[in-house]
Design goal:
It is built from 20 helices and 37 strands. It is of the alpha+beta class and about 800 residues long. A 9-stranded antiparallel β-sheet has the order 2-7-8-9-10-19-16-13-12. Strand 9 and strand 10 form a beta hairpin. About 55% of the residues are buried.
Length: about 800
């Protein structure tokens, strides 16, 4: 073992394979969203189709939602139903409990909206795809492109979304001496006006001030409510720059390019969103001035400068981690990505390049969708084309929002966790989560709570409008689950100033849990409660959702209380609260093993209505929680694995991603790997109607996650799962290759992060570590577990240790 200064740390021996395989490649344009390429700068983004007949980019701004700030609790007396529900449960009347739960429901969340569409319609282009057509997304540089030949002349289009300059760039270049002729247009499905002048198009519009989810039955009436004086406003500007030929505006609000050799389009958008508690119409940002400043600033730079600034900013994040599981056979590696995905699905053919690509694609997506404070990546990340997207493309907090951020710390993108962490602070405030705790649950101790759904306005109430099914509408543990991200971020960073700032939100979630607990037979339980979206069958045959003492509730409560206690100790504060938490933890109803050897989900050992249900919330303590481990709790770990065995392998994309992590934490390398392969199961685009269409959970041709439909959480779950197979950590230990599958017997990784503020790079052969380097900016002492042994190491501040 040797010590090195971090400045002289040589990672040459730990270098991974070249990044040439970090490219999604296709041999035809996209017809469906699920084939298109997505780009984004964490604020604005585009869905790129790459059609040789004409460019189409579907545009999004992550702050463009329907709605306005919360105006107060819609059902302030809802908490009065809680004693009735508890009484019904106490007498075993689960039907009545389910019915009464509907009294504890409020309004729905708002909908995330599409911004518009940028089109470039070419004149006199061939309908058929050119034989040499290629389309790609290089995730090492965050650059998309389309290349093909028309009339013997090559045409290249490049696309990227720049964070430093807050713009989207499209650059179309042709070698044809005659140049290209095209019409550029900008449209939106939202109320808007559009005008063109000189070489610019400007679009100004607004979103609805209120909306309902697509699944809510409101009698066929419009689910959007519009008022020109209300709602979030937006300003989109497109500036066209040309080399050769000319650009002119048209009365139809379009731009016409004539005989242009190179056409560069610079697009920006700014909304009036100014925070979750600010009215976007009366207290909004000066979006018009901001949009003008951004477009003028970007237009003052050359294309090469814009591209260099973009790639440098992006690579500062992306290049922190490299990974190598071996080489794919050249004949397979040469195939388009969607063809590789089908082959991978239909055979046992090895494709380590594809497995690496999927891992890194998750990191690409997080960089591209999570850089706006207080506005985390939503159910579709950043990319949505629908006015009424599935589940409103909102923040679903009974797994999906949290799963989006599982890879943030371990894959060395810690600062991208910030949008979620600041959002949690928003949720915890007096008029948000604290008001929900008081009005819906009767908890008035400064604690806060969150139901299953939220949105950009930090909605926290249980949704349903008094008609939602309790299995999803009446879940209470969103705050407890989300708050665990606060302590885990600290474990990875050791940033005590951060912890001081966010501790009140963590403490508030714990305070709610403490007062929400009720005593039964000398134990503390929750009542009422549900296990997200799942149903039980009582001995008399009733299929229900509402119960007391559900395992998932208590698992999340336990982790939230433990995290709060540890955070308070780290800050040297709230001694009495710590003592109260320790007392409550000792009285919590324990985990139980059911008659099938499974980890019991319900207070009683009831049958599941759907044994293969996609949610496995009662396994929270295994992952993402940290209080059930095979070493410390072998009986419970075996029961958790038995639960997964009963559930089987067929489920949604996001659920599969979760199960990869669960099997990795349970140290079952073969199942973790086979589940990862299941996640990479080819799924046809939703709009494809061929007889050979493939449906269900898995991965679309563009590698986005298929619930189906598209949800981005599975991508992030898969990325986190790969990392979990390679490294697991606690505040005092780092385990290398804890669940390494035989298929990755030889490989290397650079730049993964461990709790304790440690960065890890390593190589292995025949499943054994051959070299590992641990570095730390602040210094750390930890026990490294590898190759069947353990070694305590002390890493100097700013230095490293190589094993």
């Amino acid at each position: 073992m040797k010590l090195k200064s971090i400045s002289t740390l040589c990672l040459g021996a730990l270098c991974c394979a070249a990044t040439a395989n970090n490219v999604l490649r296709y041999d035809r344009p996209a017809r469906f969203f699920e084939e298109a390429l997505v780009i984004g700068n964490g604020n604005i983004g585009a869905i790129v189709y790459g059609d040789q007949r004409g460019e189409k980019l579907s545009l999004n701004d992550i702050t463009l939602w329907t709605g306005e700030p919360e105006k107060g609790v819609t059902t302030p007396d809802a908490y009065k139903a809680i004693p009735e529900i508890r009484a019904a449960l106490d007498r075993g009347d689960y039907r009545a409990a389910d019915s009464l739960q509907r009294k504890v429901q409020g309004h729905y969340t708002d909908n995330y909206q599409p911004l518009g569409t940028l089109k470039v319609d070419y004149l006199n282009r061939p309908y058929d795809t050119p034989a040499d057509y290629s389309r790609s997304l290089d995730i090492s540089n965050s650059l998309a492109s389309a290349k093909y030949t028309v009339n013997g002349y090559p045409i290249t289009t490049e696309y990227f979304a720049s964070a430093p300059d807050s713009v989207i760039i499209v650059r179309i270049a042709t070698a044809d001496p005659a140049g290209l002729d095209a019409v550029v247009s900008l449209d939106s499905r939202l109320p808007h006006s559009v005008a063109a002048k000189g070489n610019e198009i400007t679009s100004t519009g607004y979103a609805a001030y209120s909306s309902l989810p697509v699944y809510y039955n409101n009698g066929g009436r419009d689910k959007h409510s519009y008022d020109p004086d209300r709602g979030t406003r937006f300003r989109t500007i497109v500036k066209a720059l040309n080399e050769g030929g000319s650009i002119s505006d048209t009365p139809a609000g379009q731009l016409k390019a004539t005989s242009v050799k190179t056409l560069t389009l610079i697009l920006t958008n700014v909304t009036s969103f100014n925070g979750f508690d600010k009215n976007p119409a009366t207290q909004g940002r000066d979006y018009i001035t901001l949009a003008r400043k951004r477009i003028d600033s970007a237009a003052s730079k050359s294309y090469s400068d814009l591209k260099e600034r973009h790639t440098a900013d992006y690579k500062n994040l992306f290049d922190r981690v490299e990974i190598d599981f071996g080489q794919t056979a050249p004949d397979i590696a040469a195939l388009p990505t969607d063809v590789q995905l089908k082959l991978y699905t239909d055979s046992a053919t090895a494709n380590p390049d594809l497995e690496e690509l999927y891992f890194q694609y998750g990191r690409y997506l997080l960089i591209s969708s999570s850089r706006t404070p207080g506005v985390p990546a939503n159910l579709q990340g950043l990319w949505n084309e629908s006015l009424l997207p599935p589940w409103s493309s909102n923040y679903t907090t009974n797994i999906n929002l949290e799963e989006n951020y599982w890879p943030a710390e371990v894959t060395n993108l810690s600062e991208l966790h910030t949008p979620l962490l600041t959002f949690i602070n928003n949720l915890s405030t007096e008029n948000a989560g604290q008001a929900t705790a008081r009005s819906y649950y009767g908890v008035d101790n400064g604690g806060w709570s969150l139901g299953q759904n939220s949105d950009i306005w930090a909605t926290t109430n249980p949704v349903g409008l008094n008609v939602g099914h309790p299995s999803w509408a009446n879940w209470t543990m969103g705050g407890a689950w989300l708050a665990t991200h606060i302590w885990d971020h600290y474990l990875f960073t050791g940033n005590k100033n951060y912890l001081k700032e966010y501790y009140p939100a963590l403490k508030g979630a714990a305070l709610f849990c403490l007062d929400w607990l009720t005593e039964r037979d000398g134990e503390l339980i929750t009542s009422p409660g549900t296990s997200p979206e799942n149903l039980f069958i009582t001995p008399d045959g009733y299929v229900g959702a509402t119960l007391y003492g559900g395992t998932a509730d208590l698992a999340m409560t336990r982790q939230c209380l433990m995290d709060t206690r540890d955070a308070a100790a780290a800050l040297g504060t709230d001694k009495e609260l710590r003592a109260r938490i320790d007392k409550a933890l000792k009285k919590l109803h324990p985990y139980n093993v059911g008659k099938k050897g499974n980890l019991q989900e319900w207070y009683y050992d009831w049958e599941d209505y759907e044994p293969t249900h996609r949610h496995q919330s009662h396994l929270f303590g295994v992952y993402p929680g940290r209080h059930i481990t095979p070493a410390a709790d072998p009986k419970l770990a075996r029961a958790a694995e038995r639960t997964l065995e009963i559930k089987g392998d067929k489920t949604t994309g996001w659920s599969t991603g979760w199960r990869v992590n669960l099997f990795a934490r349970l140290l079952d390398a073969p199942k973790a790997y086979s589940t990862y392969r299941t996640l990479l199961r080819y799924v046809s685009p939703d709009g494809y109607r061929g007889e050979d269409a493939r449906r269900g959970g898995g991965t679309y041709p563009n590698l986005l996650d298929a619930h189906s439909p598209f949800q981005i959480d599975g991508n992030f779950g898969g990325t986190a799962g790969v990392a979990e197979m390679l490294i697991q950590s606690t505040p005092t230990s780092v385990t290398l290759l804890p669940a390494l599958p035989a298929q990755w017997a030889d490989g290397s990784v650079k730049g993964l992060r461990a709790r304790g503020g440690i960065e890890v790079s390593m190589k292995w052969a025949d499943g054994k570590i051959t070299e590992a380097t641990l570095s730390s900016e602040k210094g750390a002492t930890t026990t490294v577990v590898y190759n069947g042994k353990s070694k305590k190491v002390k890493i100097p501040a700013g230095g490293s240790v190589t094993i």
